[in-house]
Amino acid sequence: MDEEKVVVPETTKEVTPEVTPEESGEEVVEESEESVAEVKARLAKAEELANNYKVRAEKAERKVAKDAPIIREAKSDIPSKDLIAIMNAKVHEEDIDEVLDYAKFKKISVSEALKSNAIKSHLRDQEEKRTTAEATNTGKTRGGNSKLSGEALLNIAREKGEVPEKADDLDALLEARYKSK
Fold first, then answer.
1. At what angle do helices 93-106 and 80-88 cross, to 10 degrees?
2. How far is CA 35 from CA 38, 42, 99, 140, in A?
3. Which of 159, 95, 106 is nearest to 87 (CA)?
4. CA neighbor of 97 nearest in space, from 121, 131, 80, 122
5. CA distance linking residue 89 with residue 112, whole number of Å
6. What is the pTM of this model?
């Protein structure tokens, strides 16, 4: 038997069957002038929104960039151990700088500074001043209705010639006058 050899030509080109949109089941959409105008309008609006978002993002970045050094400085000024020591000692806000300055001056840690007698007495004095200031009444005070004694009413009546209007005060005045005679 003679074997026939079948020679298949080698091709580098891929062969794909041609399928029209109608055969594949896809709908053919014809673009009209209106849909192109709508697409252009939506594209313009999208670009405008993108520009607005970009401007807002740049403003926010500038604001963060301005605030960032302040935050970094605050973090670098006081180590966390010192912050914990200050918080545990319940140091008032106004006194924190004093404690930090003392610790830097003496070249000791903040926790050691808080244990020193100088800082302890200073903090006590400041706390006492604050409690005194809070307790001191700085506003106007209204005098209460104090009941005057019969002798005081008699002196007022003799010196100023004023007679009390209340019945109880009149009785006290008369009784004081009776006793003085």
1. 130
2. 5, 10, 73, 78
3. 95
4. 122
5. 12
6. 0.36
Q: pLDDT tens per residue, the chain (181 residues)?
A: 555 665 555 655 555 555 555 555 555 455 566 688 888 888 899 999 999 989 999 988 888 877 766 544 545 567 778 788 888 888 888 888 888 888 888 888 888 888 889 888 988 999 898 888 888 866 666 666 667 777 787 788 778 877 777 788 878 878 888 887 7
Q: Which of 181, 157, 161, 160 is nearest to 173 (CA)?
A: 157
| Residue owning tokens 């009390």 | 164
125, burial (CB in 10 Å: exposed 0-12, middle 13-18, buried 19+) = exposed
* The residue type at 96: I
- For the chain, give percent helix, strand, coil, nearest 5: 65, 0, 35
Q: How far apart are CA 76 and CA 70, in angstroms?
A: 10
Q: Give the separation between CA 56 and CA 119, rounded to whole angstroms.
A: 49
- Cβ 164 vs Cβ 155: under 8 Å: no
The full set of domain ranges for the chain reads 35-77, 78-134, 150-180
Q: Which of 137, 85, 90 is nearest to 111 (CA)?
A: 85
Phi-psi region of 91 (alpha: psi -120 to 50; beta: other; left: phi over 0): beta
